[in-house]
Amino acid sequence: MQVIESYKPFEIQEIELTSWEQRPVKNNFFELVLVKKGSGTQCINYNHYSYNENSIFLLPPLKCHSFTIEQPSKFVFLKFNDAIFKSANRLSIDRNEWFKEASYILSNYNQMPGDIIKSDLDRNYLKQLIEMILLETESDGDEAVGFIMSLMMSILEILIRNIKKGSFNELSIGNNDERITKMLTYINEHIDKPDLVKIDNLAQTFAMSPTYVSEYFRKQVHIPLREYIIKAKLKLVEIRLLNSAFTVTEIADDLGFTDVSHLSKTFKKYSGKSIRQFKLEGEYVLLKRTTCSA
Questions:
Q1: For the residues 228-254, what does the mean pLDDT come to?
Q2: What is the pLDDT of residues 88-99, one digit of tens each?
Q3: 3-state SS of 206-249?
Q4: Is the pTM of this model over 0.90?
Q5: How many Å apart are CA 165 and CA 167, to the nearest integer?
Q6: Number of C-beta neighbours around residue 281 at 10 A
């Protein structure tokens, strides 16, 4: 494998392979994969999905992903690094906006194999943006990096709107209730705004009685609304703890926890780890929707 160019806070590779070798890569955020030619099978956590030319995937922050190559394949890997949020002060980007957009993707895409793109138009946009990034990597200096960052922001926007068109892991197969899909999207878009995900506001937004919202949600998603919201918040807690300079106090305030003690106890209850232990180990717990078994 040849690394065409490596920038901070991202990396891009274009490689042609006849067989797959597991890469010594740890994704703190995610990696976008474009198949430029070839065919085979993508595997994530022992779930398989066929790929061919123009397939586009997201690789999760797990080591259990691979490709079984049937026809010689050319891949482009575009890796979003946590350095985007920890450094890059010299770049003229809104780091808070970057963090919000990338966190939404990381906490909401389903981490299963399969093409992430639902629209042929968006697929063409992404291919063009990736080609522009590959060309810009031949340039040096802040000017090229800044331009690439703006291209990557466009990529984030395209990924988000395709994730919103996709299905959520929380829904059972065959559930075609459009209202619950919209409600899940709404909750995850506003999870950092506690007032907007309260029952009264959800009832008003989705034209239900407050007494019916929780019953409806549990029937559709098979977990209580309150538990879903807590776990959605804790996924963002994990992302912020590992990839930002936010203090625990700031995280607790931003996500609507009463105080640091409340956040710490809730985190330990659902993750099985203290915040200190979690940070020391540096591995997602709640964000991993499925686990790898050797």
A1: 91
A2: 454 555 667 778
A3: CCCCHHHHHHHHHHHHCCCHHHHHHHHHHHHHHHHHHHCCCCHH
A4: no
A5: 7
A6: 11
Q: What's the whole-number mean pLDDT along residues 59-84?
A: 82
Tens of pLDDT, residues 192-206:
888 999 999 999 999
The two three-digit tokens of residue 152, written as one number: 């990557």
Rounded Cα–Cα distance for residues 53 and 51 (Å)? 7
Angle between helices 225-243 and 95-108 (to 10 degrees): 130
DSSP string, the chain: ----EEETTEEEEEEEESS--------SSEEEEEEEEEEEEEEETTEEEEE-TT-EEEE-SSS-EEEEEEEEEEEEEEEE-THHHHS-TTS-S-HHHHHHHHHHHHHHS--SSS-----HHHHHHHHHHHHHHHHHTTS-SHHHHHHHHHHHHHHHHHHHHHHHHS--TTSPTT---HHHHHHHHHHHHSTT-GGGGSHHHHHHHTT--HHHHHHHHHHHHSS-HHHHHHHHHHHHHHHHHHHS---HHHHHHHTT-SSHHHHHHHHHHHHSS-HHHHHHHT--STT-SS----
Residue 249 has pLDDT above 50, yes or no: yes
Angle (CA) 100-176-34 rounded to 5° is 50
The tally of CA atoms less than 13 A away on the side-chain side of residue 129 is 24
Percent of the chain's residues with pLDDT above 90: 47
79 vs 32: CA distance, rounded Å: 6
Q: Copy the structure tokens of residue 8.
A: 């901070």
Q: What pLDDT sits at residue 113?
A: 72
